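Continuing the batch. This is chain 6 of the set; chains 1 through 5 are on the previous pages. Same settings as before, nothing changed between runs. Recording input and output for traceability.
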Amino acid sequence: MTDNKSSPDRVTPDGDLWTQLRRLTDARIGLPRSGASLATAPLLDFRLAHARARDAVHAGLDDAALTEALEPFHLPVLTLASAASDKQTYLMRPDLGRTLATGAEATLEPYAGAYDIVFVVSDGLSAHAVQRHAAPLLATVLPALAEQGQRIAPLVIAIRGRVALGDIIAHRLRADCVAVLIGERPGLSAPDSMGAYVTWRPDDRTSDAGRNCISNIRPDGIGYADAGFKFLHLLQAMRIRRLSGVQLKDTSDRLAIGGQLKETDQL
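Output for chain 6:
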C-alpha cells in the first residue's frame, strides 16, 4: 500500500507506474490509504469482492439450466447427488461429498458400459463457475474426442460433489478415465474459477496425488481454448503411459513434434 503522498490516483511518476502494473494483474497493488487504513474506494471494493466470494460458496446449482446447456452435445445427461443433503452439510462434512446419495447408483446402472472417459460436472465450492464455464469447455474438447473415436460416457451432473465422487461414478460406468469439472474455492478476484481434475483408472484407493488438475478455467484465467488444449494433451499422455497424477507432467506448453505426442516424449 502507499500513503496519500504517493497515492496511485495522483498524476505522478509513481502513480503512472502503478497504473501500468494494474493493467497486468487483478491483484490489489498500490492501494491508496488514509493514515493506517485503506481509502474508502478500495475498502468498499474489497468488501464487495468478499461478499461475492461468500455468495459463490453458498449458491445452489441450477441443475435444470445446466442440463439445458449440455443438451447440444447430444449425450445423455444424468443428474445425481452426493450424500451431503444440503449445502451446510456439504461444507461441514467433506466426506459426504465423496459418497453417492442413496439411490444414485440406480441412475448410473442402466448406462454402465465400456467407456474411454466420463465427464462429471459438480458445483463444488462455486456453482457459478460450472454454470458459466462447463459447457464452453466441453464444446472445445468433446468434438475432438469424438473425432478420435473416443467412447464418451453420459455426462453426469453431481450436486454437492467433491472431486473424489468422480472416482465412484467412473467405476460404476466402467470408464477408463474421469474428468471432474468443479467449482473451485472462490478468491477475492475470481469467484467463478473452475477446475478440471483428470484421473486415469480411478478406484477406492486413488488419492489426490493420482490426479492432474487444470485450474482457474475462466475467460480471465486459463481460457477455454487453452484449457481444452491442455486437457487433450494430458488425456493423450495418460492413454500412452496409462497413469495420471504426480508421475505425469503437463508438457502442453512445449510444442510436440508434428503436433502429436509420441511415446518417446519425456512426459
